[in-house]
Amino acid sequence: MTHPTDSSDKSLLRLSIPMLLNSALGLVTALLDAIVIGRYAKDAAAAVSIANQILAVVYDFSLLLGVGAVVLVTHALGRGDRQEARETALAALAANTVLGLALGLLLWLCAPALVDALGTPAALQADATRYVTVIAWAMPFNAFLMAGMACLRGFALMRTILLLGLVAFPSYAVLNAVLVLGFGPVPALGVAGSALATLAVRVASALVLGVVLARMLGLSVPLLRQAAASGARRVRRMAALASPSVLDNVSYGFYQLLLVSFIAGLGVTAVVGRFYTLALTAFLAVVVMAISQANEVLVGYEAGAGRVAHLRRRAWRSGAASALLATVLALAMWAAAQPLASLFSSDPEVHREVRALLLLTIFIQPLTGLNTVLFHSLRVTGDVLAPVVFSQFVMWGLAAPLAWLLCVEFAMGVPGLWYAFIVEELFKTAYMAWRWQRAAGPALAAAPPVPVAAVS
């Protein structure tokens, strides 16, 4: 009988399809969320957009130990050490939840200052602050969810993730619509309703996931006591593996905050045009990430087993599939720009903005599709620091100044940001391709991954 975590019967398609479907559910839910809040009020949509940009940075921090857990779990399973994988999962869940609690407290205390620091228009500040403050209470549950989903992914239990999504996403969509717009005796709560719906579903999802993890992975209190003996070492190892890439994501969040400050003074149309375009193109990111996450698990198994030649070819094939599929979908999205933009707003100016940004997105996607897969492949083989340093250099040393120049100095508005993205992705893709071909394989062959038990 084939064990559920054996890599022999896994393929990119079998692992990525459940992830893609789950992410597509998330995308549809996010689109409905944007439509609902946009129908409530244009200013409310702008306030939520600004709040979500702040929250994106904190969400990236909450991924910290989950990212490291995927690496250690897949390596342990690749070596056939299921016990080590289970203990690693427990350590990730406990430590990441504590981290989420700390992040939530910090967010709750700093919400007004963060909203004001972005130069948020006075009419939007109260709603944006209210949204951030409510979501702060959800952060411990969100951190548990992120670690738990990462552990399920490491064990290649993608179908379980999909089943959980089939319950959570529709529940949120219905609850969000009721609380934002009102229904029967329930009054329309607007921005506060959207935040409360998020909080309620995160709490419920964390409770359900805890039960699922205990049953599917055999996690228990006795195992937790056993894992605690070397828990600190595991947490340090996970943090060391994940810190560069997570900090890269966090830095990217601050980078996006900076870009928002460039356009905040251009008016509500510019802010919501960007917001609606990102809501639509989130589907492209979903496709890329589903393929990348499935590839990451497979590369992790290959790395744990020391099959260097296999993992190098696998990443190239996955990257090509990701780039091609994302580009085709971007073309289709641009062709349907008018009806898609009409889902959110009837404003012709918003429609023109969205169409222009979707056209530029076509040129970004092949680059993003390839470099995302290669970056995650490098991470799972332990080659993290150099790719992150290069990514940061391009982002802050080239893309940020270029975005300011095009958006502000040359008065190109939001499209100026998209031109800067194209240049940024071009440099990143060239470097990731070079590093994967020239550096990752030989480095892994020379120094196979070290089991966590051997880390002092």
UniProtKB/TrEMBL annotation:
It is found in: Cell inner membrane. GO terms for molecular function: antiporter activity; xenobiotic transmembrane transporter activity. GO terms for cellular component: plasma membrane. The chain crosses the membrane at residues 20-41, 53-77, 89-114, 134-155, 162-183, 203-225, 246-269, 275-294, 315-336, 356-375, 384-404. This is Multidrug-efflux transporter. GO terms for biological process: monoatomic ion transport. Keywords: Antiport, Cell membrane, Ion transport, Membrane, Transmembrane, Transmembrane helix, Transport. It holds the Pfam family MatE. InterPro entries: MATE_fam, MATE_MdtK, MdtK-like. It is a multi-pass membrane protein.
